[in-house]
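Retro notes - structure team

What went well: the batch runner handled both jobs without manual restarts.
What didn't: labels got mixed up in the shared folder, which is why I'm recording both outputs here explicitly, each with its sequence directly above its tokens.

Job 1
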Amino acid sequence: MRRSFKALPDFPVADLRPLTTQVHGVDLHDDYGWLRAPNWQEAMREPDKLPVDIAAYLNAENAYYETAMADTIDLQDQLVKEMRGRIKEDDSSVAHKNGPYAYSTRFDDGAEYPIFIRTPQAGGKDQVVLNVNTQAAIHDYFDLGQTAISPDHKVLAWAADVNGSEFYRLSFRVVENGTDLDYHIADVGSVAWADGQTLFYVRADTNHKYNKVFRHTLGSDPADDVLVFSEDDARYDVDVYRQRSGAFVTILTGMNDENEISVIPTSDPTAAPVVIEPRTQGLEYDIDHQGDAFIIHTNADGAIDFKVMTAPVSAPSRANWVDLIAHEDGCRIVSTIVHKDWLIWIERRNALPRICYVARGQPIEVARVIAFDEQAYSLSGDPGLEYDTDMFRFTYTSPTTPSQVFDYDLSSGHQVLRKTQEIPSGHDPLDYVTVRTMAQSHDGAQVPVTILYHKDTPLNGAAPCLLYGYGSYGMSMPASFSSGRLSLVNRGFIYVIAHVRGGEEMGRNWYETSKFSGKPNTFHDFIAVAQHLIAERYTAPAQIVIQGGSAGGLLVGAALNMRPDLWAGAIADVPFVDVLTTILDETLPLTPGEWSQWGNPIASQQAFEDIHAYSPYDNVTPQDYPPILVTAGVSDPRVTYWEPAKWVARLRATKTDDNILMLRTNMTSGHFGKSGRFAALEDAARSYAFALKVTGR
């Protein structure tokens, strides 16, 4: 039964500072645009630089949240205690062999962060490569970025973000003595070693665009680093990585639906990058090196669900690409992994993944398959850095099954379970039920639904439900295990993942049909899942709490506007809700690359009308909304803090109910909330406490 969660009488009220702009002949009125700080880029790095009036409003909202949720403090503490009890405190990973060492991570009792260690394969003591706890101790926020050991195993390149802005500082740790070299490189994204002295890295500009590749010689002044590649197209971001074979450093530049790749031989790191195939509208590809060929995973020739091709290293352009694994409609080839003598690929059929592999030179028809029998599960490759090996590592998990790490011998088909995620407080998979069902959407599309509940939960329509969705960028939501969500399920909640259009669970078309003017399909799918759950008596309208983050927050915002009557409450984490304003602003670092998803409303009136019709901020109307919890982060470069802040201000001024509406802004972190494996539990506990409160549990 829904429990009343009413607004407190002293809720914050944002100032009205009206501003009207005209786009394509349409007047856009915005009373809350002032919440975007003029110095937002500076404030992202240093949150205390936020203008006084904006900081005062965000802090007032935070104080209101604390007062409104004060009666859940004991519950939150209990939830954190439960979730922490399911985490093995003194945990360690399965070691990966890499040259003369085996590398792994270890957590000590009570530690928030891992310790990277290595062990000589010839025998000897463990050696600490990097203790992240030591580095994080002096910061309120700490996120370890990329780590990369040099090919001679002497130096670890490691990067860290200390405020949530996703600007990472690169350092160099001499492993033998455990000290860093006396210089750093600011604003670094990905890195790739060519040899023991030469490193390539991508650097961001002041607008947070990772668009330049530099070559660095270890120990030299970074001011002397050589610019190797510069991307001038604002839609594109740049990444670098080392091929598993060790023969090439790869430069990948692209956006969501188009890219270009160049390679530099590690035997001659000063060589100019060689383009595999110049950028072509709509062409996506990635490469793996194997012997005298490149293995190419691509959507070329209309292969919407992708295929695999080969090309000679000596002549890698598209004119020389030859089919290796043919395209098959509805079978999405997700990725390829190449060893010296093996080709492995992960594909997805009917919303379930499987791993396929074949020996180099053998016909694809003799490929073997690794798959599992549960109704819903997740598989992911974890191949490590070894190239000349017959061993392939993968991880299996399901909503009821904690993660299991397997080593699989590709030559014999023999697999060994190397590790099962331990739940110290206890977990019996037989106590839980996972169901995969389908919900029919507004246009007849069948939407996959993953359902998890405790075996003792009655399916009579009375159970509360947390319904989660995302539905953007082709990101498929895995049907994986989460020890944290058991705190809801054990209290009688049914936990549901709606695999709505916008992901690729049902193939690439599942994504393509929710772009541009098709974006509302995502929202209709989500609502259809809720109606299906009600019809099948899993839950009832007064018992459904919806949750989504980032682009999933857009989904939540749209679902609130379209069918507010269906929901007992809503949790919108760093929600992308001011879509039209953001996609109209090409000065924001992520906007140009987003046009391939939503359309370009600057150039196209149709794109403008499409986005204007569903953008949650622009479609708030005078109607009753359920209780809502919204989160934001001042340092967030992905969904800037003012989007959720503006949305909350407009909702509060417009809606006709007296239900609670709360905005909680993390004033010292960004898109991903608190850092550390235990500190992050506090964010989950707040969300779960809200869900329990609004459903009367």
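Job 2
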Amino acid sequence: MKSDDLARWIRSLSRGRKAVIFWTIDTVAAPLGGLAMLPILPLYKSLGISLFPWLAALAVSAGFLSLVLRLPWLSLFEHHAASQVRRAAMVGGVALASGLVAPLAGLVVTPLFHIAVGAAMFTLISLVRAGLLRTVKTLNAHSGDRARVLIYGAGTTGRQLAQALQTDPEIEVVAMIDDNTTLQKVTVAGLSVYPPARIADLVNRYSIDRVCLAMPSVSPPKQAQMARRLVALGLEVQSVPSFSQLVGEGRLEDRLRPLDPMAFLARDEIDHSPDGTEETYEGRVVMVTGAGGSIGSELCRQVLSCRPAKLILMDVSEFALFTIAGELGGIARRAGVDLVPVLGSVCDARLVSRAIKRNGVQIVMHAAAYKHVHLVETNVEAGLWNNVQGTRIAARAARDAGVERFILVSSDKAVRPRSVMGASKRLAELILLDLAARAQPGGTIFAMVRFGNVLGSSGSVVPLFQDQIRRGGPVTVTHSQVCRYFMTIPEAGRLVLTAGAMALGGEVFVLDMGRPVMIAQLARQSIEAAGYTVRDRANPEGDIEIVFTGLRRGEKLFEELSYDGNLIATAHPKISCAREDGMPELQLAALQRDLFAALDEGDIGQLRSILAAGLEGFPQEAAEATRPPLTAIEVEGRA
């Protein structure tokens, strides 16, 4: 039989069968111990004695005491098991058997003989069990079926953890690690304790798969820092207190509590049902561009709840489109809605035009855009082409096909933009304002909805903070005074649909987002919501530090939702309207001509110059100064 097969057979033994094996060992050990001690017995006074009754009595007594003390259900690598074996051998079993039955066998013994037989019995049981343990460990070491575990922490928790895991047939505990030098080079729960410097050597020597952190007194961020170093060695890291995590598939980061986005809003969540909205989309053919994005996918969900006749999902990302189509497919079938995924870019004029005409689209919700400020700032051509040309192509295709409504999802960064992303969204707004101004009566209604950051979206600060917290920090913030408007994804989607239903043409709808939120305070809330403390001048022993990295190119301290702050109320209390003048037709046409010519030439400097000359607020300088990274402690020291 191969070692792997033998190891599997041993692990396949039921607890009852293993108990029978151990009981047999205990029963046989007593008479064998008696026989081993006979050479030291004084000369017999009678030569014709029979040893069988005495040896049988030893076996029966040892077997009985083994059952009473439940030795067959204990293993030698448990401290309790070793003490029970010692108790049975030295005190109970041999003393009782030899003291009562030796006279019956005609043996003359001394008290020392009783002790010697007990010692022999204990030695035999211990050696047999230790031999079995060594054999099983050797077989498991050559078997790839069990997870090999290293326990970090040899204190009380580590010892209890080792004893618990050693009974698990799927886990082999190899050794223990501890920073405490007094515990190193000793044996705890039958395992050798090594210093942390030996981890890499132990991993290579024993092919360790997993490390269990048994240090509940160490703060979670410090455990996370240790975990990062262990993960770098290719190890899976798990942590006490949950034994289900230790023997299952739970990971260390799962211990962090999920953050509730609403905990970060300085207001109650908008909870207005879209009265009158359903009838705008019910029974209609609706197309959502950027359908796989954070806002686009939420628009798809909420449009679907309005029971349209057909929902067209368009996205350039195959994975994103597959994901949202898979999520909504079953719901659409049950609701009798025809769901049509369209893979491609809004910059592909023929694709957009065909998708609109073939499906008879009546409403377009244009959410397709590159929205990450820093990425667009370093990919100027892609950002401008997608956000400006893509909007221009989609809007013109909608107009030419006689689409009833075209609603642009815009951004507060479009107001006096300092970033290329904001400038691209402002140009998209100007294109729609121009089309709305020149629309024929009964033609396509063009409108846009402007709002700020969305909690929980891809690239949002909250997921970024969560990831940094999982890694043990630090949490990075661009500036101590930077603030932003926030709302949740569901309320943003709900209000975009409501504004789209209210549009008459040419409106710039602005959503009520409450008071702006300080990003530094948001970072602090994120840390505290995860159960940690902030490390700063007031609390130098805190868990996670906040580091201020300085504003990057295109970023502003404060965002605005309108140019003049004068907003017109609408029928919805959370939606206002900014009646903004567009750019003169000829000026806008010249701006677009120059912009697309510079895009064709790939002249980044010229592109920035065109944006600076044509858009209020866009910086003239080629690069903006950034601050050196500061920690929260340094910021407080300068204040």
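One thing worth noting from job 2: The CA atoms of residues 362 and 403 lie 5 Å apart.
We'll revisit the folder naming next retro.
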